[in-house]
Amino acid sequence: MPTYTAPVKDLQFVLHDLLKVSEQDIEGYSELDPEFTGAVLEEAGKVSSEVLAPLNVVGDAEGCVLENGVVRTPKGFKEAFEQMKEGGWTALDAAEDIGGQNLPYVMYTAVNETFVTANMAFNMYQGLTHGAYSAILEHGSDIQKAMYLPKLATCEWTGTMNLTEPHCGTDLGLMRTKAVPQDDGTFKISGQKIFISAGDHDMADNIIHLVLAKIPGGPEGIKGVSLFIVPKILHDENGALGAANGVSCGKIEEKMGIHGNSTCVMNYDEAEGYLIGEEHKGMRAMFVMMNEARMGVGLQGYAQAEAAYQNAVIYANDRLQGRAVTGDENPDGPADPLIVHPDIRRNLMDQKSFVEGARALTFWGSSLIDRANKNNDEDADGLISLLTPVIKGFQTDKGFEFAVAAQQVYGGHGYIEEWGMSQFARDARIAMIYEGANGVQALDLVGRKLAQDGGKHVMAFFEMIKSFIKDNEGNDALKADFLDPLKSASKDLQAAGMYFMQNGMKNPNNALAGSYDFMHMMGHVCFGLMWARMAKAAMEALENGATDTAFYETKIATGKYYMARQLPATKMHLARINTGAETVMALKAANF
Amino acid sequence: MPTYTAPVKDLQFVLHDLLKVSEQDIEGYSELDPEFTGAVLEEAGKVSSEVLAPLNVVGDAEGCVLENGVVRTPKGFKEAFEQMKEGGWTALDAAEDIGGQNLPYVMYTAVNETFVTANMAFNMYQGLTHGAYSAILEHGSDIQKAMYLPKLATCEWTGTMNLTEPHCGTDLGLMRTKAVPQDDGTFKISGQKIFISAGDHDMADNIIHLVLAKIPGGPEGIKGVSLFIVPKILHDENGALGAANGVSCGKIEEKMGIHGNSTCVMNYDEAEGYLIGEEHKGMRAMFVMMNEARMGVGLQGYAQAEAAYQNAVIYANDRLQGRAVTGDENPDGPADPLIVHPDIRRNLMDQKSFVEGARALTFWGSSLIDRANKNNDEDADGLISLLTPVIKGFQTDKGFEFAVAAQQVYGGHGYIEEWGMSQFARDARIAMIYEGANGVQALDLVGRKLAQDGGKHVMAFFEMIKSFIKDNEGNDALKADFLDPLKSASKDLQAAGMYFMQNGMKNPNNALAGSYDFMHMMGHVCFGLMWARMAKAAMEALENGATDTAFYETKIATGKYYMARQLPATKMHLARINTGAETVMALKAANF
Predict the structure, then answer these.
(1) Alpha-carbon gap, residue A326 to A231, rounded angstroms
(2) Which of A411, B319, B527, B536 reaches 20 to 30 Å from A212, CA-CA?
(3) Are B256 and A415 within 8 A, CB to CB?
């Protein structure tokens, strides 16, 4: 059975050596000293390793079952969920007066990484609840906030997102679910929603569905969509539960993975619902939830690669097969461990350098969210808005790729469910799809985010890289291995942007045909920036007399690997982008 | 439920326009005129679409079951297998006097593509039997040939390959299974083999296991391995079945995919076995089977991508979502079909250009095998020996990648088992692992095949490309879109080979650390050559007045896409290779 150990040292490195969180001028950050965050992460890691990780394979094998209208989660999930609630792990960033710990989002992210890595399907029950919490926090009325926030923060009640319908996912303007206004100000919601993660289960007293629906007579398409709160069980103003609402789980989907999470078809039959925010402005509130979810999914991507990587390293050290070409390394054994072989190394270094780059980008992104929210910093807000599709799209594509690569280290054993490596790959697969398939992320990036606010944010991004390179030009230790490749990759990215500007005017397809490549290029450039910064931080730690030299030297070596072996991908992406839409759009639909 | 239609026109294009099989001076090829091959392929396509494809999802959902020592295949498999036998589909390339059709291997390959695409797990029962047939044909005694070949050709009895043991897969020298010689010239085989595809089942009267084992007192390691025939049921010299042999299925593995095939743990307990070929020379005979299996697995790789692609195209044409940015294409409908979107096009073109390139390379490879075997052509033998790891490694990596990409076209529906797209990805995954994990293929290519016969074959390969480019330099239609990119990619590949030569001497890890990238580069160059040739063939067909202009124009356009959008990957691989082993091998094992 696979195991998981929270990489507390690595998490601490990103928080303190890289981001220097306790020195940031963001509300609540000054309290994030290494002792405090270390203690929290150690404790979270313990829950992750001891409670959540062992349930991961159980969840996969058992799945969720719908019986007589009741959804049963896998054995042990309920007890573990209680432990999460009791430990206060569900409300880290909620305000203290509603049962939370009032910690910054960056800390929520760091803790969440350990949970998601240990058991992705399990953690979705809490993750979606957090999304519902945030949407109501930002767009709900005072009464709604008072009613729902404390219960969602503590996961006494859980939350869901209801967007997709059988005939529409990305194009929500086609939605058919109706919300008919009632005299008492409530609405009657009717329709079918599909792919509802954590849609029904047995781990909370009530479930608060956030449902997109159309009020009859409103504008056509996406402009006529409103957002509603639809509780599974109706309740009075004190939260005391009453009758069942007109909502039920029609079916649990059979999926490729995340079997531990109940993915439900939800049927709404004149269910009572309460409008959030204004009529027909539902997408605005839903986007709060979606942007948060996209960050969370980007984390899922690398988290599954991390889980798979940890186990691949153990296997590569244990499994004896063949001999090192440069001389036996285990002369007394029948063969050398797999890890002596260069191609196994290449594979493991790919995984390691990806996961650590992704962690840095995700934590940095979370700190930008804190800065945007707590300091009302519009530049930070613009930057994270630009980076969100990259974090979601690039990290989930690569996360799946490297979970698959880790599975490969096991040879035939990787294909057998018993070893658990297949689950990491199968679970990671969904992250490329939900919360906007990665092609939609690329479209969002190239079709919307690049030009947002007159292109201000992407220019600031390039400026930031340029400044970093300029500020460190005299640093010989960084120059050839980090700054030069970063400069080159950043130039490639700018050239691609330039190509879009010059050719997208003539034909927007010239930009859109290159959007996916651009998303990947930008991911590489972000990772290149993260690795250059991490290398610098590691060098500084060594200069300042850090005792754990192996740890910091490993960071630098891993960064060198990324710059040398991964970053050159930008050249390929640029070459593709520069061919424009012609070959992409050449065929008639009938000739595929 | 997914569907499958055999792409007979495309198969014919490769056989006749590209390879011009009926004009080749290879025994049996002159009979392969378009009418004949067309009729065979139409018929095979019918069996594939109507019999095998509908059983694909059944096999996945039901899997194989071991009950009271008996292995039961999924519902309908037995009847379908009978149909395959009765139709003579199992013995296409076997000699007529042993029940075969005496067709060339290239024709076996073309027919096999349709079977494997329709139902990979099902076709493995026959594919492994074919491998056992080939090993006995080449290395068996006359008595063994007379006994087993007719029954294997017709699949009255099926075959298996038994290599892997719990503690060793790639490194077979560690093997523990023993073969103790008996006075009557037979051996008693004892030990455990794992991952035995089609190891036991209910579709044949007997199963002929080819088993690697060590005769006590023989040389250490791989040099002491011999190959044995071990029938499931003992038989007399007329093939009449007698008592059960000492071999049994201990367990069926739970796998990520190919559930329709019984992957067995096989226990040998003093089972009676008969030596094939010489003592301690077992690997030689096993390699016949393994090389054939590697070609077959390379075919599985693109076959699953083809199956997934066909369905993705249907979905992309059916599913209405969003509007084309260049103006509505389905103005009367609520939205445009997915296929209008450039990023969906990019994805489908990636898949299409891969599958068609892979088919061309695989069929060409099969014709090289025919030329080597039937004409005793050593150059052809050397070339296919060089290409086999590329066909296996590159095509299965990319086949999985593009099956996953096709799944992505479906959005959330791609993750739900009901739509069948998950199965294509899960089934395709094994092809990267078995018959030598792809890292081992890369090692075989760089560590052995490049230098084989003094590097003669790789030089011939480069020479072939050079000649093609030179011979067609005056062809303006080919020049910029095909010849120039091919030349550039081929130069990249040569530069990588040069890097290995210059730096592998100092430290072999400099070559091995780049082996995986080299395998991919070489795959791209092979595909580039295939596409340049296919484009030329299509242009000639158009010049010669072919009436189906859309078909040939589509070929050219698809080729242009490959050259523009896929071939630039060689630059990235070369950049990686040129960084050598330093960053790959930098860490101590303890620091991963």
Answers:
(1) 65
(2) B319
(3) yes
